[in-house]
Design brief:
Length: about 60
């Protein structure tokens, strides 16, 4: 009998925790525009670093 009560109680706590987690993720979500901009800056930095590495290796040779 007590195990059924604990099982239901823990299930309710789990549901509340999941809802709380989903709510936090929705509230703290970055906008799509910000995500695209940060991704573009990351790719641009990678390309710049690769270009500077190629120039350095060409100067060494």
């Amino acid at each position: 009998m007590a195990s059924k009560i604990w099982k239901k109680l823990l299930f309710v706590i789990l549901v509340i925790a999941c809802l709380f987690d989903i709510t936090i993720k929705l509230v703290q979500r970055n906008s799509f525009k910000d995500e695209l901009q940060s991704s573009a800056e990351y790719v641009q930095n990678l390309e710049t670093n690769e270009a500077s590495n190629e120039v350095q290796t060409n100067e060494v040779v």
